[in-house]
Amino acid sequence: MSVPVSETKKPISSVPRAATLRWLAAEPYRVFFASGTVWSLIGVALWPLLYAQFIGFYPNLVHARLMIEAFGGAFVVGFLGTAGPRLVTAPKLTTLELGWLFALHQASAVSHVCQRPLCGDGFFIALLVSLLLCLVIRVVKFRQEAPPPQMLLALTGLVCGLSGATMLLFPVNYIDPSRFRLATLLLYQGLLLPPVLGIGSFVFPRMLGGEFGDSKNGAETRVKFLRSLAVALLLVVSFFLEAFGQVKLGYALRAFVAAGYLLLEVRWRKVSEDTPRGSLTTGLFWALLLGLLGLVLAPLYYVQHVSIEHLLYIGGFGLLMLVVGSRVLFGHSGDLPGFFERSNWVRFLVFLGVLAATTRASPAWAPSTTVSHHLYAALTWGLLALLWLLWHRRRFVTRDEE
């Protein structure tokens, strides 16, 4: 996939160091997307290391925290840290803010690898609080435009992540199964699902060849705000329902709300016959399908819900973050048309994401394959993450001044 030469694009090496730091602070997704993907590699590598007897602990907790906080959290922070100030026409992040956020991100991930979950969760809480402060200050003091109403769902994700991680700081919440399940739901799904819906309703139309999903007038803004508010409340209610015994109702509500919101907010048909649909757009549909399947199937086989939910975690969240991350990287490196190109290489990357999700979920129906499929899924995701980083290596360090 070729990258056209443009006078407005400069490699990072040609920019003075101070200017480079300011540029990275203005576009923090560059460091957070890359770091989060590397941490996802480490997170899945724990399983092959366990079965090869290179580590002496069962890594389920460390793996989960790395994939949600260090991988998913990095994409949330990188995206909101980049888009948040732009959406309200406020000053971009400073180099000091970027350094602080990135240090907290690394401290959280390293703490989890060192099996210090309380420290890891504590640093993650500090990261989310710091990001919230950076964004709230800009919205309250510096904004020239109101934030899109869909960003209420992104805020909901940050609050859910904060709430879940805070609950997990207290040992008493590990003893009570209902409270522990609520805490993990808020952190593992609440941190990512609302932002996926909110950001997705704004970005998915652009990825499909149309315009951003912004409001056209005041009346539409009010409708979008009320819809986002209702979705945020219903998602939180679904977590409480599942945690306190109403498992099928909680999952059904979550699936219905998520699917219904995206169907209402996003125009899924082609804008015109000339509208491009590239291989990454196909990846978007696969990610949404796998995520919905994870929500629908998990309550039907709840004894094996951990395996089935990986359709949501790997396919719905993981693959989707790589697809949306690719859209951001193409757009900010001056090669937006490249996102819509059809490519066997991209199809292979999407295939790896689908394969990793379905392989990890399959032990729910074939328990005897648990160990082998842990390995296959880990290796498949690791290959996907590595190839994704290599594919975008130049876009991570190419600036588009426009």
Portion in beta strands: under 5%
Give the count of structural domains.
Answer: 3
Helix tally equals 18
Distance from first to last alpha carbon: 22 Å
Strand order across the largest sheet:
1-2
User: Stretches where pLDDT falls below 50 for ≥5 residues?
Assistant: 1-8
Total number of strands: 2
Largest sheet: 2 strands, antiparallel
Round the mean pLDDT to the nearest integer and report it: 90
Structural class: mainly alpha
Assign an overall shape. globular
Task: Please write the string of helix (H) and strand (E) elements.
Answer: EHHHHHHHHHHHHHHHHHHE
Report the radius of gyration as a whole number of Å.
20 Å
Q: Percent range for helical residues?
A: over 70%
Give a structural overview.
This protein has 402 residues and is an all-alpha fold. The chain folds into three domains: 17-147; 169-266, no CATH class; 284-402. Helix content is 73%, strand content 1%. Strands 1-2 form a two-stranded antiparallel ribbon. α5 (117-142) runs antiparallel to α6 (151-167), α6 (151-167) runs parallel beside α10 and α8 packs antiparallel against α10 (218-243). The protein is globular. The chain starts with 8 loop residues before the first strand and ends with a strand. Residues 1-8 have low confidence and may be disordered.
Brief characterization of the structure:
With 402 residues, the protein is mostly helical.
